[in-house]
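Entry type: protein chain
Record version: 2
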Amino acid sequence: MSTNGCNLPDDLYYWIDKHIWAKPDSDGTVLVGMTDVAQSLAGKIIVVNLRSLGKTLVKGKSAGTLESGKWVGSIPTPVAGKVVAVNEALKKKADLVNTDPYGEGWIIRVEPTDWATDSQTLVTGTEGVTEYQSKLAEQGIECSH
């Protein structure tokens, strides 16, 4: 689905206030990335530094840092657990987060501690996208591509 020029797939779990998405996989792990909204707000991403493999993350704490032409900040994780994969491609081509935030621009893969609990604070499906759209409209946020 698209709203305000922002691509918002309805098969993801969103942490709207942080502009982060999560996608559970059949192997029990959860893929995490930044939304189209986040990459648009950040501008061209120059550097992405991610936590190391095996690192245990607390929900809401940093999965890494991101630097763009107009912003430097932490990438919060929407799920607690152990980092089982990091997107190594971002070291050489950080702007994958800009060009493909839901595909090649993913951030980390986590083996969750308690996905059932963590996912309850995220929104998903058509209802989740509708809630995200409302937030964008309320804040006057538009994505530029």
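Comment: The mean pLDDT is 93.
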